[in-house]
Amino acid sequence: MIGPASPGGGPARGTALVRRPGRRLAEGIVTYTERRPVDADLAARQHLAYTTALSAAGLSIRAVPSSEDLPDAVFIEDTVVVCGDLAVLTRPGARSRRPEIEATERVLRDLGFDLARIRPPGTLDGGDVLQVGDTAYVGLSSRTNTDAICQLARLLSRSGLRTVPVPVRGCLHLKTAMTALPDGSLIGVPDWIDTSVLPGLQVAQEPTGAQVLLLGPDRLLLAASATRTAERLCSDGYRVTTVDISEFEALDGGVTCLSVLS
Ligand code: CIR
Q1: What is the per-residue DSSP string for 185-253?
Q2: Cβ atoms within 10 A of the Cβ of 84, count?
Q3: pLDDT greater than 90 at residue 128
Q4: Phi, psi of 122, deg, nearest 5
Q5: 169-173, 208-212, 232-236: lowest mean pLDDT where?
Q6: Closest CA to 20 of 92, 76, 81, 91
Q7: CA 98, CA 93: separation in Å to the nearest integer?
Q8: Which residues sit with their C-beta closer than 6 Å to ligand 1?
Q9: How far is CA 22 from the centre of its chain?
Q10: Which residues pair with 115 in a beta bridge?
Q11: Which among 108, 177, 235, 247 is least buried, having the fewest CB atoms inside 10 angstroms?
């Protein structure tokens, strides 16, 4: 959880950690999409609209200082896994992203989190960790390895969570492929994950991935690119807000990767 330290001890709840994109955003890593130009001004406006949508949902925003030297730092989700008062600093699979951890760590320390970290030879991106109730699904992906999954499983077991590794293929992270709805059901793109280890998966066949961020018991934030999923979830009775994040999608980013929610 992220927020100002609470009077009762431990960090306060209901906060979103974000990191503004820098001017060199276009130099971010591209693995699964064809590289195309990224408009830094448009990206800045899209990021502001994203942050505004989080505020409108009642979250208080805590910004980690942006960095001009780290093009992928806007994808802050990959730097930490938060579970209650515990923040597990990751060790990103892409070496160029490892310096991003420092600024996240400083803010989390300020906020009073209990800090732990993934150690070598483990590599883990936060985008591979989906917590649903007392289960943490962790993508075994091109960025996250088995060693890190074992380390994370040990850390999360102290908070009563069980860890289920989920092989991921054809997309960057587990949360690109799948996310959870407020009732705990899973939704995503079955071609990109090993569904045999999952209790069930509603199909959301979107070209850019699962693209659903849970903001409350009936409130969801979706990427504007996920049009069919947005229509379906609206008709299922959810309050759906959409945001255009095209400039981040161009760098393999999705709607969850721009924040860490508590
Ligand atoms: C990368 O390749 O690391 C970035 N360009 C995109 C990271 C997206 N992160 C996420 O979906 N959690």
Answers
A1: -EEE-GGGB-GGGSS--EE---TT---EEE-SSSEEEEETT-HHHHHHHHHTT-EEEEE--HHHHTTT-
A2: 17
A3: yes
A4: -70, 140
A5: 208-212
A6: 76
A7: 8
A8: 28-29, 31, 72, 75, 77-78, 94, 97, 127, 172-173, 175-176, 251-254, 257
A9: 19
A10: 87
A11: 235
